[in-house]
Amino acid sequence: MSDAPSPFWDFSLRFYARPGVAAACLALQEEAGADINVVLYLFFLARHNRQVNAQDIAAIENTVAGWREQVVRPLRATQRHLKSVAALFTGDAATRLREEIKRSELAAERIQQLTIEQQFPCATFGAATASAAAAARANLEAYAARIGALPADAVNTLIELYDRQ
Fold it and tell me: What is the pLDDT of residue 83?
């Protein structure tokens, strides 16, 4: 995993660790197919008073879609499968393998985040706005317009928790 400094990664770790955020993100991922790294970046942009539009979302998606589909999601699927079948195997080799794959998935997500952060710098990407809270909601609405409706409860939870930062 890259050790490059990343304000976005640091923000993601802090925000994701807040009670309720992980469950809301999982709902977005499972129910709407949302890319949580993209969702987190939309909040990170909002933190810097940046609001995105449909073209901005398309640019992010076009950059990360291949990596997400060919690297992140297969690692996640393998890791989840091993979780469900590890008990069937003698010893803890399957559990150790699952932990290694879990670390690889996290490394792949960090690479994705570093790419987003480098390709779409928060200081200049999107449009400046006066309200971080309004930008967060507008950014999620722009993303939903691209991928389809996001579960309202999960969105509201994330917005509420984001506003408390």
Answer: 83
Domain count, the chain: 1
* Domain range for 97: 13-163
At 3, list the tokens: 């050790």
In three state form, how does the secondary structure of the chain look? CCCCCCHHHHHHHHHHHCCCHHHHHHHHHHHHCCCHHHHHHHHHHHHCCEECCHHHHHHHHHHHHHHHHHHHHHHHHHHHHHHHHHHHCCCCHHHHHHHHHHHHHHHHHHHHHHHHHHHCCCCCCCEECCCHHHHHHHHHHHHHHHHCCCCHHHHHHHHHHHHCC
CA–CA distance, 77 with 121 (Å, rounded to integer): 30
pLDDT tens, residue by residue, 117-132: 999 999 999 999 999 9
